[in-house]
Amino acid sequence: MAASTPPDDEFPTKALASAEPGSCGEGMAPGQRIGAFRIEALVGRGGMGEVYRAVQLEPVQRVVAIKRLRLAGAGSRQAAWFEVERQVLAQMQHPNIAQLFDAGSLPDSSAYLVMEFLDGEPLTGWCRSHRVSLRGRLDLFLQLLDGVQHAHQRGVIHRDLKPGNVLVTRVNGRPVPKLIDFGIAAAADSEGTEVAGTVDYMSPEQSNPALGSLDVRSDLYSLGVLLHELLTGERPLRSSSDPAAHTRTTGPQAPSERLREMPGPVAGALAAELGVGRGALLRLYRHELDWIVRRATAHDRADRYPSADAFAADVRAFLDHRVVAAHPPSRRYRMGKFLARHRLGVASAALAVAALLAGLGTALYGLQQAREQRMLAEARADENAQLAAFQQRMLRDVDLSAMGEQILSLAREQAGLTPGFRGMPESEQAAALRLLDLVDGIDLARRVLDSQLLDRAESAIDRDFAGRPLLASQLRETLAEVHDSLGNRARAAVLQREVAALRSDELGPADPATLRARVAAATALLAAGERDAAGDELEAAERARRTASAVLPADLAARLAMARAEWHSQGGDYAAASAGLAAAAAPLADAGGEPALAFRLRAQWAGSLLREGRRDDAARVIDEALEAAEAELDQDDGALLDGLNAAVPIRAGTGDLEAALALSERLYARSVERFGQEHPFTLTQVNNRAVTLINLQRTEEAIPLLRGLVEARARQIGARHPQTIKAEANLASALMRSVQDREPDALRAQRSAESAQRLRRVLAAREDLLGREHPETLLSRASLASVLMHGGEMEEALRLARAVYDARRERHGPTHRDTIDVLDLLGQIHLAAGELSAAREAFAAVLAARRAEQGDEAFGTLSAAAGLYLSLPPDSPQGRSLREGLLQPVLDPPIEALPPPLQRTRRQLDAAAGRGVGADG
């Protein structure tokens, strides 16, 4: 709660205006006690009650805010709103939402909330008084969006987003906005006819219930108004006090329009406050910020952003000079953003145009010649076919590493020839050249190639081969393959679908060329995260094959099986994926002549077996595949790289963590050299390496890798892409594991809170994208339960873990490895909560299952034995038997000689021996 609120940021909340002023009676005096809290001073008073600054005296001492409502003088509606606020705040755990500490009632019928005390100012007032720059304001606004997203993921609509309810305070010297006052919050899609909120910030549907129920986009409208105010210093509908004004069919005025209407001195003062010249400010607002505000405040909610995350993505895109989704698409706009984002790179690229044209000029010349000779196409079909093949080779053989290095080399050479550079001191020359060392030449070359060649080649195909659809499909297929190799999966998928449609029209749906294109399109769509669309392509291929009773070539049958298996895996049906790949492996091996394809299929099969829980079978299949591939394939063959990549998690899954780490580091170095820092294959190696480091208990090395990975994937493919979500889940795991053995301190509290926050976001996204019972959703729920256990929130941890156990038991049976793993987690939660009988029962079942499956020396077996031992009464016969039997390999050697996972188990056992363990309960 706030210490003070300037009058010009106070706007009445409509739903609370019915209480009579003064109806709360006398307030509480300084020094008065409410339980563990002592009143210090009155902060503010309103129609419903008062807000006080108070001190909590025990069990910790801290300054808090107490919000009091005198129910005896308030209507039932005010009491209901107060109860809503209490229930809503109890769900919130976010750095940008004021925290609720306690709640209760007093003998005089008062109700109260004890909250985080915020000695801050409303957002707009803070920005004015501290003359916050444009970027600084947008950074604060992004933090606010993150807090609002947190509330929306819990099904809560704030309904009163305005400057007075966003207080900025300093945390560790850094300004942090805090969202307060959920007093009129509502559930998403809630029905009702009561108008509630602050008029100047209401969405049309909020001010007029006839327009339908509220959803999260109602809050986004209010945030759009708030952003307009941050940009211009004025509210877009400041003169209106009539809710009907919000039902107009056009949105509020755009920021640039408001800026143009301002008197010169006012606009100049605003620009100076934002640290930008008036003309530059107008240029910044026009187009992108205007479009962002317009989309957020669109009259029709269907035209607004779908979520606060999407809103934030556009604001970040503006700050990073990337394409803003709200802006109408145009090639000129995209090129402008590229130039703004890569001024140095584009300048270097411009110097390399001659080299680029020299290396690829023959391909462009071929396209030009084909256009001039299209009237003679029939007579020269063979020549055109040869020309197309030549163009394909030219595109496929582009060496990004050499191209990137040439661009940077030319930039250094050209810099040395300029008078300005030669006139600089040597130290400044060296510093300037060092900037080029920070540029990733491969990524730069990839962007130049995309904009300078591939876009032009696609346009040339559309223009010059419109009358030759088969030749056009061949060239388009090549472009798709190049885009895929560059990491542009979404564009590759679009092109492959166009190829399939062209060939289906020209050759028929059952022709092998058409079916190959269908499979390629499905594979690209799966890589791009478009599982439903991929299913459509696979179904079309199967339907055409069945209708024509076609017998597929062995390689095409294998590719179809691989695509279908990936589709099953993304849907969580790993058994079906494994069965399909096993059925396809033998015919492909018998056919011969496709060693790379056979290796890819067997590597995929091994990965599917691992996900299914069949670790030994997975290790056998990948070892056999690697032995054959290393004898038949070149060391730089892409198929071998893919297979080695599949071997990393299999090595880790079978316990050989050091081998998994060495393999992932080797692949990362090779991928950076070949593809660049941010290619999808390179990022996959970052993830593999980080996950292996986590399993080796080297979490401090894993955390920065995963932070960079989450940022890179969110920037490239979006925050809700499955790969980004997986990276965030791994980061949450690393954060928790890094502090789970620490004594309670600030770092443990901070990382535990961040881990839980990220896992809640991951769980919400997976429930939305995959469904509540998908294996990855269940994994996220179990991970969150583990984090909550370490944070002491046993009740919620137990509820989540039981739900996962019930789902896995129903799906897989009681002895499946995944079911046993979550039963182990249930045992850990019971043990941490002191429920030793329940823990004992769980660990006994886990130990029996793991001994039968994995043997007595496996880590999982020893971990379960340690859990059972810790749950037994002190000096029990069973406990002595475990210490002298199964647990001896953990207890006898020096702790540093044990593998990292067993070192933690040993520390638990040593600590238990020092204090005595167990009790009947």
Shape, per Cα inertia axes: globular
What's the Cα radius of gyration?
32 Å
Quaternary class: single chain
The CATH architecture name of the domain at 1-242 reads Orthogonal Bundle
Count of beta strands:
11
Distance between the termini: 43 Å
Strand order of the largest sheet: 1-2-3-4-6-5
Number of helices: 39
SS-based structural class?
alpha+beta
If you average the pLDDT, what whole number results?
77
What is the CATH topology assignment of the domain at 1-242? Answer: Transferase(Phosphotransferase), domain 1
Largest sheet: 6 strands, antiparallel
Helix content percent band: 55-70%
**Class of the domain at 1-242, according to the CATH hierarchy?**
Mainly Alpha
CATH H-level name of the domain at 1-242... which superfamily? Transferase(Phosphotransferase) domain 1
Keywords: ATP-binding, Kinase, Membrane, Nucleotide-binding, Transferase, Transmembrane, Transmembrane helix
Transmembrane segments: 344-367
Pfam family, one: TPR_12
Biased composition (Polar residues): 238-253
